[in-house]
Amino acid sequence: MRGSARKIVLLGLLFWSLKALSVRALTLTATTFPLAEIAKKIAGEKEVHLLIPVGLDPHHFEPGYRDFERLFKSDLILAVGFEPWIRKNPLLARKTLFLSEESQLEDPHLWLDLRKLALFTRKLAETLARLEPSRASLYTRRATAVLAEIESLREDLKELSNCRYRKVVILGHAALGAFLREADLFQVALAGPHPESEVSPGRLRKILNLIREEKLPAVFLLDPGFQKYVPLFRRETGARVLTLNPGLPLLKEDRGLSFFELLRRNIAHLREGLCR
Fold first, then answer.
1. Which neighbouring-strand residues pair with 169?
2. CB 36 within 8 Å of CB 260
3. Can you tell me the distance from the alpha carbon of 196 to that of 59, in angstroms, rounded to the nearest whole number?
4. Domains of the chain, earliest start first
5. If you placed Cys at 274, which of 39, 146, 165, 174 could pair as Cys (CB 3.0 to 4.6 Å)?
6. Quick check: helix, strand or coil at residue 98?
7. What distance in Å separates the CA atoms of residue 168 and residue 114, rounded to the nearest whole number?
C-alpha cells in the first residue's frame, strides 16, 4: 500500500508540473524603452522584452531576423506608430497596440505626450485583461497606479507655468513639444522633430540672438550629438547648459534611471533653468 500511495503522489506531482508548464506566461515585446517601462509596471511578472536596445536611436532602427522571430512569438506587441516593419506585416499589426494609429507622425516622440500615454496605459490594461481575464482586476489596479504617476507628473509640470522664463532653448531635436505644453512652455530647438533635420546657420544665429535679447539664463542639451554646440552657446551667450531627456536613456548617466525618473529630472532641470 505504501508503495502504491507513493506512486499516486508522484503521479499527482508530475500531472500538476505538466499542467503548470502548459500555462505559458504572456510574452510582450515593446519597441521602445518608455513603452517597455509602462508594460513592466502593468504586466508585472509577465515577460516583457525591449526590442530596440537602450542607448540606440529608435528612429534609425532596422530589425534583424532574431528581432522578427521575437515579434512573431510575442502575444502582444507595443509600438509607437512609426515602425513600418510592423504595419507592413498583417500578422504583426493585428497583435500590436499602437500609441498612435497614424502612420505618418508629425512628432514621433509621442511617449512624451502624457495625455496620450495615459490613454495608452488604460488600453494596455484592457488588452491584457482580455488576454488573461483571471488577472483583469490586477491589471486594472496596476494601471491605476501608473495613471496616478502620470497625473503627478502633469501637476508638477503645470507648476512650471509660474516660472519667469517661458522659452526653452534646446540643443537638439524638437522632441519635447507635447511635454512642455503641459507647462505652457515654448520649445525653441536647433533642429526639427525628425533626426534627419539639419541645423542651418540662419537658425543658429537666430537662436543665439534670442538668448541675448531675452537674457535667457539657461539652454538645454537634449541630444548627445549636439554636444559640439555647447562651447559656442556658453561663449556667445554666457547661459548655463543643463540637460533634458527625450524619455530615452541616450546618455551614459541616464542608463540607471527609469522612464518616469528621466521625466522628473527633466522637470527639476527646467525649474532650475527657468524659475531662478
1. 188
2. no
3. 10
4. 25-157 (3.40.50.1980), 163-274 (3.40.50.1980)
5. 165
6. strand
7. 19
